[in-house]
## 1
Amino acid sequence: MAVIEFLASGTVTSAQGFLAGATVCGIKASGGVDLAILHSEKPCTVAGVFTTNAIKAAPVVVSQRRVRSGRAQSIIVNSGCANACTGEDGVADAEEMAELAAKKLGLSAYDVLVASTGVIGVRLPLERIRSGVKGIVLKGNGGHELAKAIMTTDTFPKEVALRVETDFGAFIVGGVAKGAGMIHPQLATMLCFLTTDADVEAGVLQDCLRQAVDVSFNMVTIDGDTSPNDMVVLLANRTSGVKIGEDSAGLLTRALEETCVYLAKCIAKDGEGATKLIEVVVEGALDVVEARAAARTVAASPLVKAAVHGNDPNWGRIVAALGRSGIRMEERRLDVYLCGTCVMKQGQPQSFDRRRLNMSLTEKEVSIKLHLNLGLAKAVAWGCDLSEEYVTINSAYTS
Amino acid sequence: MAVIEFLASGTVTSAQGFLAGATVCGIKASGGVDLAILHSEKPCTVAGVFTTNAIKAAPVVVSQRRVRSGRAQSIIVNSGCANACTGEDGVADAEEMAELAAKKLGLSAYDVLVASTGVIGVRLPLERIRSGVKGIVLKGNGGHELAKAIMTTDTFPKEVALRVETDFGAFIVGGVAKGAGMIHPQLATMLCFLTTDADVEAGVLQDCLRQAVDVSFNMVTIDGDTSPNDMVVLLANRTSGVKIGEDSAGLLTRALEETCVYLAKCIAKDGEGATKLIEVVVEGALDVVEARAAARTVAASPLVKAAVHGNDPNWGRIVAALGRSGIRMEERRLDVYLCGTCVMKQGQPQSFDRRRLNMSLTEKEVSIKLHLNLGLAKAVAWGCDLSEEYVTINSAYTS
């Protein structure tokens, strides 16, 4: 029997033996904290999933290479500049950034991962990072500071930790993420760092992470644009002494799923300009790949998102988006629920109390449920409404 | 030698032997013209391409069946109600709509096609259509009236005609379209009716139409949402006496391409809330399928569209969108031009006069050119900017 519970004020440093710190080094125009380090006192096994965009940012190229070794101990991360589309110079910059952290921490640069988020096509201001790194003070409760340092257009920091109590001991899983824009992950997401003090071999760690990411970050969409900087990295430093083997991997996967779903929903809620979280459940699909495609397509539809923004029960757009998702379906079997109200039953439009549904749509969380009535597969995706503010934010990002 | 020239004030009834008329029948809340008939004095051969959305509106189901016979003589069309997601009752409604027109015109209902556009999930107000049909007066210059009757959130009617002068006589191709929202056609587009007085066998007609649609309507995107009502239909009534066989089909295809590209660009320009036309050219791709996918993905990116709206030369978003398009590419070979200014050369960011590029972006037409430098394939896609107004229009469409 295992018990999983969320910790009050949990952060990425809630797991034992992890430290973090952040500083203002002047990359972000806002003048906020923009450079941070996450560090484990002991060497860790590491797992990671990275963007599938053909354009990979320099820090993705560098970190992906290092994660392949299965070990790491620290992550240095900046916001305000993505170090993407910067050619070979950009890769050299990312490597130097890792070296700066390694020197400070007395590590090999190969044990330091690098992450960046911000504007694409601009070189990193290395001079600022060089002096910034010196100012970072690592603390056992530094997770919250790091969460703030990786924000760009995010309006709140996204962090969580949970404690897993098992028959053979307790361990903690912590996580931090950033989101907001260019969010439509394909096998990874913008930036997410996860920690655990469990003792897990790198291969098992990678399997557990992959499964958790598939039902969480890979099911979030803000705007359909996949970033070249997406990365989810999980460090396990074995400080708790709890050993996770293949037999107990299911437990770690469950804990990671809870962590990642929590952070993924935070990202959706805090989409650029968003005022609401949209949850799309697709049931009765012929297979899970199709259920996932359908849920993601509906959650990504700009017309569905705009209707939800205006509290408009224009459910025809939900069905139209489902129809273009490319999955197998039959219109005459389809049931559609909007905020719990059945608006289509076996392909027939249902009459409903428009005013009441209007009211339900004003809630902060809007649920859309589609039952295909064909098979047993199910998937859930999360998105947000599309507001005028999304456009305002994105029409002058670099100007 | 053939000469193709645009006619001044050309409409869908510019081709000989075509008539049209429209009326206010009270489906559109605005009280504008909303029911129209396009009619040929002689029976026509017909070609059509229809939505690939798994959800097909009733008029698509009915018209698709009739186009298969290769002959038709009239089209009845309404705006304000899509007659989509209306089950079997909706199909019966669409069939009755065709019958009403057939009775008025003294035809078999099998020679009448049906089209609808507007809100999804609402039954057609047949009573209004019954009395409305009686009030339609068909005229040889009625094309412009029909163009207005099929508008929904469109801000201007979209119509064109051109004259093809050949060694063996002259013929005319006319066309009318509507666009504005839910525009991301897959093998068809919202609504487009084309006419010609050339004499063309149905099989040849279908081939010519398919080719023209592929480089025009299939390369337009407003919001990534594919409508269940998309339909492009071409009627050929042979009144000019000019016979188009397999040998001269290339000429008709060229004329149709010019017509369809013109209308497709009108649709992009008049996207909901749009202030600018965006043209995306992809060159140097390994094959044309990839060139097309790349051009469409960039034209559809909400982040690219929002940046263009704000005159922000944030070209990194163009490259990020290209990268997620799934095509084969190498970052180090990529050249990117924005409004004619080179912003990336062989994968390296280029310095440019930001203020001058800012100014260029304020033009009504913004050009994006991506050279992959891998192969010889090329494609062009058209889209529009994403404005706050798009959201405003779509957040209260049915409320």
Note: Chain B has a mean pLDDT of 88.
## 2
Amino acid sequence: MKKFSQWVNSIADAGKELLSGKARQDKSQSLASLCNELCTSKGEAMGTAIAHEVVKAYSALDAERRLAFFQMLHKDFGADPKEIVKCAEAFKQAPGRDTYRALYHAVETRRQILFSRINMAPDGTETLIQLRSDLLDLLGQYPELGGVDYDLRNLMISWFNRGFLTLEQISWETPAHILEKLIAYEAVHEMTGWGDLRRRLADDRRCFAFFHPALEDEPLIFVQVALVKGYAGNVQELLADPTEGKTDSRGHKPDIELQDGFDTAIFYSISNCQEGLKSISFGNFLIKQVVLELRQEFPQLKQFATLSPIPGFRSWLSKELANRDSTVLDVKTRDLLKLLDSNDWVKNAESKEKLQPVLTKLCAHYLYNAKRGIQPLDPVARFHLGNGAQIARLNWLGDTSANGIKQSAGLLVNYAYDLKSVETNHEAFVNEGRVAISAEFQKLVKNTAVPVATKKPA
Amino acid sequence: MKKFSQWVNSIADAGKELLSGKARQDKSQSLASLCNELCTSKGEAMGTAIAHEVVKAYSALDAERRLAFFQMLHKDFGADPKEIVKCAEAFKQAPGRDTYRALYHAVETRRQILFSRINMAPDGTETLIQLRSDLLDLLGQYPELGGVDYDLRNLMISWFNRGFLTLEQISWETPAHILEKLIAYEAVHEMTGWGDLRRRLADDRRCFAFFHPALEDEPLIFVQVALVKGYAGNVQELLADPTEGKTDSRGHKPDIELQDGFDTAIFYSISNCQEGLKSISFGNFLIKQVVLELRQEFPQLKQFATLSPIPGFRSWLSKELANRDSTVLDVKTRDLLKLLDSNDWVKNAESKEKLQPVLTKLCAHYLYNAKRGIQPLDPVARFHLGNGAQIARLNWLGDTSANGIKQSAGLLVNYAYDLKSVETNHEAFVNEGRVAISAEFQKLVKNTAVPVATKKPA
Amino acid sequence: MKKFSQWVNSIADAGKELLSGKARQDKSQSLASLCNELCTSKGEAMGTAIAHEVVKAYSALDAERRLAFFQMLHKDFGADPKEIVKCAEAFKQAPGRDTYRALYHAVETRRQILFSRINMAPDGTETLIQLRSDLLDLLGQYPELGGVDYDLRNLMISWFNRGFLTLEQISWETPAHILEKLIAYEAVHEMTGWGDLRRRLADDRRCFAFFHPALEDEPLIFVQVALVKGYAGNVQELLADPTEGKTDSRGHKPDIELQDGFDTAIFYSISNCQEGLKSISFGNFLIKQVVLELRQEFPQLKQFATLSPIPGFRSWLSKELANRDSTVLDVKTRDLLKLLDSNDWVKNAESKEKLQPVLTKLCAHYLYNAKRGIQPLDPVARFHLGNGAQIARLNWLGDTSANGIKQSAGLLVNYAYDLKSVETNHEAFVNEGRVAISAEFQKLVKNTAVPVATKKPA
Amino acid sequence: MKKFSQWVNSIADAGKELLSGKARQDKSQSLASLCNELCTSKGEAMGTAIAHEVVKAYSALDAERRLAFFQMLHKDFGADPKEIVKCAEAFKQAPGRDTYRALYHAVETRRQILFSRINMAPDGTETLIQLRSDLLDLLGQYPELGGVDYDLRNLMISWFNRGFLTLEQISWETPAHILEKLIAYEAVHEMTGWGDLRRRLADDRRCFAFFHPALEDEPLIFVQVALVKGYAGNVQELLADPTEGKTDSRGHKPDIELQDGFDTAIFYSISNCQEGLKSISFGNFLIKQVVLELRQEFPQLKQFATLSPIPGFRSWLSKELANRDSTVLDVKTRDLLKLLDSNDWVKNAESKEKLQPVLTKLCAHYLYNAKRGIQPLDPVARFHLGNGAQIARLNWLGDTSANGIKQSAGLLVNYAYDLKSVETNHEAFVNEGRVAISAEFQKLVKNTAVPVATKKPA
């Protein structure tokens, strides 16, 4: 009957006794002093008691003291350049095991030890994730703290190794305190509440998340999947609830059933959950694992594809419009695109009819040809193509939400994950920047108003 | 109904498809080539498929190829000394974020990346632990492999951080495949089989283990505790089964009940389980956590103490006997100790009577005064005193097993863990080499035949 | 990953093969024929296959056929009066084991066998509960079906024996598909949605339910408890959410904490969940078990009491007002009570002030003196007093919801469960109709405007 | 960390307070008085407190008092014959709902109420099963207690309805305290200890058990299955451990793997576990459910069959030998069968060779023709044929254990469960006594030395 968290608390409190010896007396210790102590042998000897004090002290800091704390980590817990130089010279003189290890230790910062010890406390991992989230908020203004982040991020990359993550299916039978977090964390297509969530967990949907054992109730990332027939192209249709407002005689909402004949799994939303784990990537692993899981459960599935936003399309288009020398836009096109200036074009059948071929081709061009170095300009394209997916299909008016219109004129794209092509696609993409595309998409690129390949060199 | 391991297998097999693309063709790949590939960006892009191939390939190696594999890791996956020197010089010229990071990367070995990626596979962590166990067996003969071990050990220290371990109570309700491992792993007082184990898991006993989430069914370390009245001094009494040979009318063994009036928890056996996690220490954390758990369950507990072996006593004594100038032994004592030459002294009441005072004092002297640097010579003493425990009591004929007689003439010692003194004890021990002892033990040291403190300088 | 329900379905389908033998051929069987078959030895030999067919066939019935099915159960599956008379006469002639058993069997109906066999199917118990719920809806119009209900109810009393129920704590960590049912089933103070539910499951609240193993996800009854200081008298205060509209920086709702100093557990809502288990009583067992659970978790609890509606008060009062000879109401009181005719009295401070003493006394009189036989007229009073509780306190304007005003002029009552008095209270209540009351409530009864005790005989 | 049983105990103790009121004072109550009280309304009002007292009091009875307790149940808690006769006459006069219900109640004994209430206590169901086990031991000597057993058995049939049982797979990952019971309960082929059990739970074996939710840790019945190629005919081969005495480098026993090519599931042992549930049958349901489970897990399975003992063969044979007029045995056969008199025939190749054809045919005859009414004389045959199985194959020297030789001259038989024939087989067996046999077995019966069908009428 007792909740787990209560046990942890009572035990952690009990651990306090370890700190009640003569050595400590009755003065309350500063966080700096606790951190220093935690890095010594005593940090280990006291079990997790000192680490627990650090966790509590950190949680109680206000914004100002938090900044001071990070500054202290930056100044007092970094590596010692003199020691590094000394060890480096010794290594240069006589490269070998001992000089290597000495250098290795010199390069290591005391922050790494400190963070590792904080991690030992109950809620230690959670605290470090919060700490990094706080730190990231400050990095813009205090770039010198980048070294602190560097250490913390390296530890997290090690700790959140794929081998330690567990894949869990999220369903309507999942505990409410976890589902509640999904509502808060959904980043692609906002959830409006429990009714919306319930529809996304119906029998014709699947949801999977990665968890880490040290963060029992906190998803790290989750993906939402629709089981449908053929590629789905419209996200509002996927999110609609066909049982809206209906209840049975006992007041229960009716269940939505999985329809026969489905052959495609559409990954229509992937959300990272932990700000403090930023740039530690889970998405690629998640997608591939879920493809395997789904194929296990449903051998009838023939295709696995995303229904993805194209976040950079409109801003790229604006730049092209602003650029008088753009080779992408001719006068007629520029003229037509003025229709976009009014937000009402989506409601106007004529405008939509006119815009469809032009925007579709431009978007295909954007995805296929617009680059940053040899990689696509669009960040979502970069991610999926880097994973070995191919561009399968563009979907006109796939997302007619305000956000969808704003970022990509309502266009959505399917990236297909065909396991057999993933390796080849990945290698061609990484080595040559080659973008894998479907035959259908191929036609859009061939027919672009402005044959880019020949013009770009100009 | 399906067992978990079957799921994992089917999924891992499915992952194989990822490797079936054109790029790979039909040739079966060498382990070296897989390892190289795993370290590239493709290692991540392929999800866990390549890592899984490496795991399978490693498991299939025979001893000779295993050695070759380790040699390859040593030679081809280490850090590049030239690159280190280059980066170190750049850092020396201009210490700063970029030069520091470059050096940091140069110091890092490809092995670390390789091991991290192997860890991503199903059974990856288990494979690495096995790999390190295999490696440790070779270190004596091939000391150059120490660098490979260094990298692996550093990763494991990070991954097996206390914050990721879970404490589990082991009981007679624990699954048999785990209990079976306890029988195999018990290192202090061997278990003779399931009957012996059952007695150690009765109501008047407790057993706790640390587990790591990536090794679901493998304890890392476990401790066995007896709930008794006052210090227990004899381990055979603790291990005896009062229900030996009894069964009830239904063929069930009767339960052993926890007796009223107990006030002491005796930690009579602590065993590390994983050879491949050698020198990654869990014991100190385990003891302190279990003290807190037990106090939570049984507020009536007044004392927490070990019943520990003294593994170095007899070999130290032999050296003193061999040393003609020993200040510890006088002629009369030397004479008396000849009784030890016969293994029968334990069965001889007179011999025992004569030996008791002499051996007890010598053993007290050994524990208290025999040093390696400023630390005790005895490794078990070093461990518990370093944790902040104190020497509480010596127990004559505490372990009359062949092994007990051989290593410590049957003597056992209680180290007491008094939470309130742990910090003070630890600091005095680490800083000054001061050994915390009870008033009772104090008398033994005072009365040692040979007042060591004054003689040692001589 | 596979959901349990899928297993059950696939297995049940597989069971179909058992029915595919020659004997059955291809004709689809009628429900009547299946029921007859299920009562024979074959019903058992086929495992659960025939029972499963009956379950499916019943679920597919429309209202008309359902009625026909119940009529069939009534006519064709009852006991045979001739057989009963025959066996009764044999018993009368020679009372003994064999004649007794023959009579026992004659009295038993085939319906009992049929229901027992249906129960063997997957979802069998659930189907029977649904079946009884359907049946109860028809009883008013078709009283002859009472015999069918009698058999079913007797079986359910046996199957839902307290010994087979498990008490579960319901919390915010409970799976959503169960929580959703609580929202639907709450019968006393309606839940407006997930936000309302979340508040009722906060740290200063407890919720417990009985479950039956055959109905894994269906609570049978649940009770909601508030942990407060002293008796709570106002239910709207208990239901209010102090964190209304607040969220933290990550979009999470803040937690409501349990306040120090609480000493009382208020049971403010008890709801039965299964229409089909009507008149099978769980409430008394639930309350007593929860008192014990709470005392275990919180030794500081001093009082356990309900905050209960008084559903019959206003209708009783209306009758008294309509009765010109009422000895309870004098002219002045009648005059004052006209204030109740307007629904606005609750918003009018003067009206409230005037009405409080009069309504409070009348309500105390109603609870204490208004009887049906020797038992209280009020059904909720009957329940709690029968359980051994005492009337502790009346609460003016304890429930100002429309329903609260309508049924009891906003008054609520606390029934206190003092374990030490339960037995005495129960016996006095059952044997003599004596109602246990607190000293505080005693004053209200003494001071009733109309000294009832002396007048009643009149 | 707290074990569940501890919770239950503390709560049950707490419930004691309910019995501490004035009404009870300090005298300790007799079991008779507690039982009477438990049957009144107070029995329910006190929650489970009185029932718990009864459970404790019963457990403390010695053999003599236990008998006295059963005698009391027989005399004081039975039905009242006068009341039965009165109600029966009323029913005869006016058969109808009210007279029926009155008679129904009159036929019900107070024991039924008492047992139902005892069942409400913690450990209530367990206590009643123990109570029935104790009672069955006494029935032979005290047949008048049969009525007490009749009531208890009827309740248990209701409570242990198939719909309330759960099928669990038993594996080497099952908790040891449950596995330990399997060792004790195995009734067909005795288990010699944990090593034997481990082999029976290896990857090429399956074990399933029925559990009841009120008896969490107690299997009711379990079946052991071997996955093999073709019918297995020898049980010692199935029980042999191919890894006997082997351990790997870490001290672990090697795993036995499931071999490719298996197509048959052999049910080689079915054991009932609870003496107190005697003659409440689970076996038929278990076999059919396990067939479905196995087919789900292994679609490659083509055949499901038992490897069963023939417990009555030798004793039937002895009777035939003793019967001079036996039509089954001719002189030559009688002569040959003298070989059986020496226990050594099993070790003698010549004896075995001579006996094989004769004993096999006689055994086939026994199984097929020896009857009790229209049913087979052999109880195991009766069970499986009644379930709808067919006799598939006789196995010479299938069980060479002392017991196997003793009861059936080492012969074992396979009963095949072909789902598609089960219904037809069952009906023919029940209605006409027809025994389903395989073509292979058919030959044995045709060729019996003595054509029984024609001789029996003689």
Note: Confidence is low (pLDDT under 50) at residues 1-10, 449-458 of chain B.
## 3
Amino acid sequence: MSDRPAQSAAPRELGPTSFQDFVSTEPFPLELGGELPGLTLRYETYGTLLPDKSNAILVPHALSGDHHLAGRYQPDDPKAGWWDHFVGPGKAIDTDRFFVIGVNCIGGCRGSTGPLSIDPRTGQRFGGYFPEITLGDIVRGQRMVVRHLGITKLHAVVGGSMGGMQALLWSGDYPDEVGRIAVLAAGLSQSPMAIALNAASRACVETDPNFRGGHYVPGEGPDTGLAVGRMISHISYLSSAAFDQKFGRTRVPGAQPKDPVFWQVESYLQHQGQAFVKRFDANSWLRITRAVDRFDLTARAAAGRLFRKDGPEILAVGFSSDWLYPTSELRMVVAAATAVGGNAAYLEVVTDAGHDGFLLPDTGLSVRLHAFLG
Amino acid sequence: MSDRPAQSAAPRELGPTSFQDFVSTEPFPLELGGELPGLTLRYETYGTLLPDKSNAILVPHALSGDHHLAGRYQPDDPKAGWWDHFVGPGKAIDTDRFFVIGVNCIGGCRGSTGPLSIDPRTGQRFGGYFPEITLGDIVRGQRMVVRHLGITKLHAVVGGSMGGMQALLWSGDYPDEVGRIAVLAAGLSQSPMAIALNAASRACVETDPNFRGGHYVPGEGPDTGLAVGRMISHISYLSSAAFDQKFGRTRVPGAQPKDPVFWQVESYLQHQGQAFVKRFDANSWLRITRAVDRFDLTARAAAGRLFRKDGPEILAVGFSSDWLYPTSELRMVVAAATAVGGNAAYLEVVTDAGHDGFLLPDTGLSVRLHAFLG
């Protein structure tokens, strides 16, 4: 018998989790110009940081995620954190062994500095005046939290979708500060079709009369536009097979032909849209989707200035039915890294779940990710 | 030398075209219940009907199309009819040999009875009171025009997308009245994901404050919602490769990061949406998209009651990058027809154009369609 937790221990639930705020009063310069007058970043950690601080894994979140990766704040919370399938004791990102960090991104609406925050220069919310940001800004903010925790080199950065883009930026911008990155369901750039889908989603928000150029009072904002905009995005996260399996051509029970919501899939999407409005701010949605649309490392990768021979080890994970970030984009990450002698591998998860596949439990992925993290 | 036009003659432009109205004052019963108090169907024909009336080809239109298939009303019309690439003298559907018919569908807004029409019972526009319709209703209306022209058997029905669904209905409902059907970029049913995309598009219209439950005054309707809804649909008509080729990640010249329209693709989609509003009615959009969503012949095909051994010959044409009606759906049409001994063939057009591929010139398709029509 050993005191050391066995790697083969069955996955267990995390105990109650809690968040903390990192606060900086220093101006934070932004990549596109201007600055934030200060920065609050809400973060959450799981597991124990070793004395030599060598076991930290950062998990940047996707578009609508946050710092609450796993576990519950209260035992009766209806939902655990968004990546609870993968983060926890005995899980792929094993909190018995690793110190795992989630940070709400700059521009977000879950505690970090974003459009809902008060601008100390005016005493008013930033709202529509919140500046345009980039994923580079978001990563630079995360790095301040990592440094604040005394960590100079991360064991790994693991992220899906927008989180995967951030993992790529960590590898490119701070190659000596991260040992390995796992990039799931993302690519070297935001594709034109992905931009198009975000553009349609944003148009829903921006044409809602309550949007008022972004200068709405919280609670009286473009709820309708944001809900419909989220419907569009939600479609892009699934696959045709997922729609077949989840809904088929099932009708809402009792629906009459003239009823505006007739199909189960129609009802589901409307419900998802309305639920999203309760947890997300429209200006945050606009700033973050635009930051994602700006993401483009292709030229840098082609010029040999993104990956390097002795850079972080890379695992790129594609999901077979993901049409928003097709598997070809993940294979391109591996091709670009290996072209300069980098250590990179590709894993394909065969699934009908579409882009959302990275959020769902998958034994093969868990095993592979666990092994990759060492 | 022969007076008969050579089949190998180079394609030529049609002379000036014009439309006509078929008018019935008889009540027109609807599949989902209720009736229209009468029916006007705007149609257009090209070429000459043989004395034995054996050379007629009907071309039902897609969602936003109309009866104006080809040619120009005036020589300086900026655009020819929507299928001018395929319909005309010497073209795939050769108006030197065939009498070609286009009919604006019931529920449309280009001259046929639809929400913009006056309800003779009230003297007011139908508007939001226009009943729910089906593609079966639309086909039954077309058949009245065909009969009115003295035609008892069509040489062929050829249609893409919603037009292809109508071709399938002609084959199933009136197998003795059509010699062959060509089904392009459609399937045996509207898929759940295609419903989802239409649902999001409709939600844009229905949540526009100017929609007023459909009871808007023409010209003061939900233009903004319809434009954004059309953006969504337009995305589904293209492919990721088409977005790459047409727009890439090009920015609007001079656009600043904070500008709401920053990407060329964003600008293009907004332009397309706004242009659509000028030519389409929101209530028509809702009625027709819902008719398409209801389309489902799968159970009938599986039960052997859609196709038959001596039924119309079938050509199913899939477009390799069409993700709205994937090629598997066209192959399924052929499989279902051949399963009962029917005469059916599949043609795949390799293209990056996505669903819109059926609207674009393609030599291979032209040759094959020309041969299929005999």
Note: Confidence is low (pLDDT under 50) at residues 1-7 of chain B.
